[in-house]
Amino acid sequence: MTTMTKLDPFTLEIVKDSLLSAGDEMFVALARTSMSPIIYEVLDYASGLTDAHGNLLTQGNGVTGFIGMLTFMVKETLNKYPGEKLKEGDIIIINDPYQGGGSHLSDVGLVMPIFYKGELIAFSANKAHWTEVGGKDPGSFTNDSVDIFQEGLQFSCIKLYDEGKLNEGIVEIIRSNVRFPDLSLGDMFAQVAALRTGERRVKELCEKHTMETILAAIEYHLNHGELISRQELKKLPKGDFYAEDFIDTDGIGNGPFPIKVKVTITDDEFICDFRGSSPQVPGPMNCSYTGLVSAVRAIFLAITNPAQDVNDGVFRPLKIIVDSKSIMSAERPVPVSNYFETLLGSLDLVWKAMAPHIPSRLNAGQFLSVCAVTLSGNHQDTNEPFLIVEPSVGGWGGSIDKDGASGQFCFSDGETYNVPVEVAETRYGVLLDEYSLRQDGNGAGAGKFIGGKGVIRSYRALSDGQAVTVTFGRNKFLPWGIDKGHEGSPNEFYVKKSTGEVDGPYGVYPRYKLNTNDVVQLMTGTGGGYGDPLERPAVQVAEDVKNGYFTVEEARDYFLVEVNKDTFEYKELAGRN
Amino acid sequence: MRVATDIGGTFTDLVYVDDNGNFGIAKSNTTPPHFEKGVLDVIEKSGVSDSPLTMFIHGTTVIINSLTERKGAKTALITTKGFRDVLEIARGNRPDLFNVKYDKPKPFVDRYLRKEVSERLNYKGEVLTELNIEEVKDAVAYFKQEGVEAIAVSFLHSYVNPSHEQQTVQLIKEIWPEVKVTASSDITQEWREYERTNTAVLNAYVQPTATTYIDRLEQELQEQVKIDQRYIMQSNGGTTKFSKAKESPINMVESGPVAGILGAAVLGEMIGEKNIIAFDIGGTTAKCSLIEDGEVKVSTDYYIEKDSRNAGYPIKTPVVDIVEIGNGGGSIAWIDEAGSLKVGPQSAGARPGPVAYGQGGTEPTTTDANLLTGRLSSKNFDYNVNLENVKSAISTKIGNHFGISAEEAALGIIRIANSNMLNALKLISIRKGHNPQEFTLLAFGGGGSMHAPALALELGVKKVVIPVASPVFSAWGMLMTDLRHDYIQTYIKRMNELTIDEINKQWDEIERNAFTHFEEEGMEASNVVFQRFADMRYLGQEHTVKVPVANGEWTAAQKQQAIEDFHKLHEKNFTFNLPDAQTEIVNIHVTAFGKVPKPQLLKLERNGTLEEAKKEVREVYYEEEGWVSTPIYDRDKLPTRQTIKGPAIVEEKAAVTVIYKQQKLYLDDYGNIIIEKEEN
Which of B546, B566, B594 is the last residue of a domain? Predict the structure, then answer.
């Protein structure tokens, strides 16, 4: 603290801003140099800087699901290479789900120590979803694996660069074990370039402001984050809060699996206790402990202060308790490919426990699934192979002051973009029949403030021998409403064959075969409603009918408003106040 | 005589140049909602109405205001069956990652006014389903009954084949001639249905307002002034005739702000500066744009209401690349929840304005900080300044919190404001792979000259130029513009499959189209100049690089050159290239200029001594120096080519230049202030 007093607050603020902008720059650099759509389009990666102990200073995120993972990668690195073992120029590669910082094998992390004048002062780190890491299925992304060995290559915190020298052996192993080595290695080197951008910027800051100033600014920055969190914590209701729910399936026929939380909020702590949740499962829905930490951190930010800059100081009041070998703290060698579904399930528990008590920050339940779709085949005109890997948009919950958002990616995604119809039809061997909001017809999401609508996206195969793999969570247990708000609708899909036969609905399905003119109709869920539907103003209900968000029957049955289907004149029925 | 008028938030500016190259300026209040009145006021005030005007160029905020204030027309949409919700689903992204109550942008057309009709093209533009005329008629009848004022038509793949959109528009015009109608393919020929549909919808939404405004302006001008040619400034940095502007008013969304950038490029060419960072600081925001090798960068990646936490609305029309941040002279300094000093984006605006104005402002602003540190003098203000009030506001709101003096707090405000602006400048330079040392910072607007020298030291640029007419430089830029139209066509072709014949046919078609447009505007073909680009990428990539390509008839050599230039540019932009990978074109882009004669800049020769130009010596508070006795000069009296060493201040009407001890300054032969770093 002695250095602190010598520095004026504006210099600290300016250095802090420079660190944040270095983080942004690293983030942009990775997207700009990547060859993989999952990185440059879905932004399924994170990058940032930590201090010399692994405390996160700044993290650029494209998705919420990665928050917190960089810290644990760095801590694992410090653990494995203590003291002199870590050298300037080293870069560590890590994707082991069961070690610190792991999620699933597709997310590959790189960690680089930053030295200034021989002293370790910070780390530059990133983690990105590679298109391929090997394993049993193309894209490495599978919903019916039975152990980790089917899911791809494992890097258990090893040196990719040793004092600046590339370990060619690792490169060769990757090249011979993945299906699209140019993409995977291209992304790896893009990650390396981004790390070096971070290193360069931190060193420049040291040159300009002295190392002492930088270290003081780091301390100031972390304390600033903690201060804001503690101020927000004081405003929260105190006590114990509970929620229970289920994970539908493990993808290979087992389930549903119960999960539960007790949230305890005191003046200084925010404790999430998941004990009593299901043990780890045979299929790939298991979530690693790191995944659980990210889940809780993401919803903690939503509850406390979604607008603030994220660093480890912010999370100091947070504590997590969980049984070992549970579905949300899985251990070697159970499969984890679809860990994000349980990550979502875990954070949704905290959300559900707290939502009724913090209506200004939290809304009702959402469709809560990445709703991942993989569609492969050959293009009808060029006969070239194509591979669609994409998440889907769906409905979010209503809240105390507004209707839920329709057609938006789930909470663990974020700055994620859907693939335009015109782009999809040009690149892939499909024609889209429909991309529209879902009309449930059964009052799903009804409330004073209604749940946002799920979406229907229908792909028509234009060649024979296509295969679609669908992983939709929340197929059996629906998005929850609050305070008499109705539940939403399930994520589900149907296959409408050219023969007229209709198959479905399904939630999770590996490699469903499609031939020319077979249509896979993907339907995501509508979000939960907030408040009593009878309190929704009748004029608003009439507008909902006019806009086709609800039918005349739904208006009558669930909102007690009789709406004329032609003129949209309305009449309130007995039973409304 | 040539006249430009630029409507700003507070003032309507006018700059004129007569046939001898003499410039003059005038300012008048902006007069919402009848903006044309302010234009006529400023014309009258300037006295230019007495002489015949050869050219009148106008920049307006009417379009952007109508969008941001949601005061456009009741708009409906006709689209392909199965896809009316494309406008509402949008891209599904949520930039405000941890806010679960994120407000997704609401579409400009309600769902009941989005009607689907049967029709379908495939990605090659082949018709899979014919357009159903009866369904179009039904939709139009419904819209009529609902009191719709404007209709947008947007069908899938219309960028390849616009025939269904054209048929629909034709039909609507026949059965309902009064309604405004926009086909998406008339505004943009790029793929991505959400972006194209939204662009068409916003064009329709502003069209009635724009038409009324332009008609009224034209009529009033005709009554009061004799003008040969009337032009409106477009977002692409060029002008168009009034009549054309009414067809696609969305092209005027950044009319005004881009003119300063264009002006920077033109002035740069005159004084031999090809690489420029143009930097404009106004009352509420600062804007910057990078000009490389004399070329103003134009793209269609434009959004309104987009920032790091909001997805905004895309508009796929050509707009000069500008980065804008909420930091200007009126930006308010404040302490955040955790005790850190922040500046902006809230602004005190023109009313009540900074504390210094004495018009009721209580929040300290950047301008107040500049006053308290001696960078500004009370004499620079049109108001009676009470310095004690300024000092007390800065102490109470900022200084006391940190236990420091008002002056130290004021310097803190300036440093934070500079840090914000520096990040914006880095964003367009270093982060895009440019070395700032190879650029000149050209600063203008009311606050540009105040902050630019300090920023130049931080950024490492070698030279700063404060141009003539710097406080009204945007309007000056308008005087220097040509007519301009950009034609961007999505045209997906792998380079190894592209034949010379087909590409020549494409270029020819676009350029013939351009000649027709210019002919309608009365521009002679001999004054038309083309510039061609191809947006290219490696096969499988998403991001494209804009590659300047050869004009005229192509042979295999031009095609090969395009591929080689792409590899080079890719390496520059993205740090690597893949010489063996396949390349493809995504869009072809032709910029067509209709050249108009430019007024010449008069050379200025002013003799005399620096001592005669000196107004006073004032105490100025500098970073790391404290109070320094600083000479203050009058720009209008500065002799040319005589060097002043920093620290020093140069004052002019409505702007002040502050240089540091590491810098020196002189007036060049055109009256521009040139600031350079002192060589040690």
Answer: B594
pLDDT score at A2: 34
CA distance, residue A79 to nearest chain B CA (Å)? 30
Q: Verify whether the Cβ–Cβ distance B104 to A362 is below 8 Å.
A: no
Q: Best residue in B81, B84, B89, B98 to probe A by mutation, most A CBs within 10 Å?
A: B98
B215 in the same domain as B200? no
Compute the nearest-CA separation of A361 from chain B (Å).
7
Residues B60, B84 within the same domain: no
Report the pLDDT value the prediction gives residue B201, as an integer from 0 to 100: 98
Within-domain flag for B496:
yes
Q: Is the CB of B492 less than 8 angstroms away from the CB of A426?
A: yes
Cβ contact B98–A406 (<8 Å): no
B492 and B537 part of one domain: yes
DSSP H or E run through A171: helix A168-177
Regions in chain A scoring below 70 on pLDDT: 1-7, 37, 41, 577
Asked, for residue A355, whether it belongs to a domain, the answer is no
Shared domain check, B137 and B24 = no
Q: For residue B49, what is the domain's CATH number?
A: 3.30.420.40
Q: Do B94 and A363 touch (CB under 8 A)?
A: no
Point out the residues of chain B with pLDDT beneath 50. none
Query: How many C-beta neighbours within 10 Å does residue A302 have?
Result: 24
Contact by Cβ (8 Å): A5, A216: no
Mutation test of the interface with chain B: which of A421, A458, A566, choosing the one with the most B Cβ atoms within 10 A?
A: A421
Q: In this complex, do B91 and A417 lie within 8 Å of one another by their Cβ atoms?
A: yes
Number of inter-chain CB pairs under 8 A, A vs B:
178
Task: Name the residue facing B88 among A227, A231, A406 (closest C-beta).
Answer: A406
SS3 A243: strand
Helix (H) or strand (E) holding A520: strand A519-523
**What residue ranges in A274-384 does DSSP mark as E strands?**
318-321, 372-378
* Residue B153, phi then psi, degrees to nearest 5: -120, 125
What range does the domain containing A6 cover?
Answer: 2-224
| DSSP string over B264-327 | HHHHHHHHT--SEEEEEE-SS-EEEEEEETTEEPEES-EEES-BTTB--EEE-S-EE--EEES-
pLDDT, residue A433, reads 98
ipTM for this prediction: 0.94
Contacts of B569 in chain A (CB under 8 A): none
- Which residue in the set B98, B100, B192 is minimally distant from A423, CB to CB? B192
> Over B514-535, what HEC string results?
HHHHHHHCCCCHHHEEEEEEEE
Does any domain span residue A383?
yes
For an interface test with A, the pick among B84, B91, B101 (most A C-beta atoms closer than 10 Å) comes out as B101
What's the pLDDT score for residue A555?
A: 98
* Domain tally, chain A: 2
Closest approach of B278 to chain A, Cα-based (Å): 21
What's the domain range around B565?
A: 483-594
Helices (H), B52-183: 62-68, 86-89, 133-145, 163-175
B560, B499: one domain: yes
Are B92 and A417 a contacting pair at CB < 8 A? yes
Among A179, A194, A224, the domain-final residue is: A224
Any domain includes B149:
yes
Q: Which of B149, B182, B208 is the last residue before a domain boundary?
A: B208
Domain final residue, candidates A197, A224, A251: A224
A400 vs chain B: nearest CA distance in angstroms?
10
Task: List the single residue in A301, A409, A546 with the smallest CB-CB distance to B112.
Answer: A546
Contact yes or no for A227 and B341 at CB 8 A: no
Q: Please report the pLDDT score of residue A7 as a whole number.
A: 67
Nearest to A555 by CA among A538, A569, A535: A538
Count the domains in chain B.
Answer: 3
Q: Within 13 Å and on the Cβ side, how many CA atoms surround A369? A: 32
Domain CATH for B512: 3.30.1490
B420 contacts in A (CB within 8 Å)?
Answer: 17
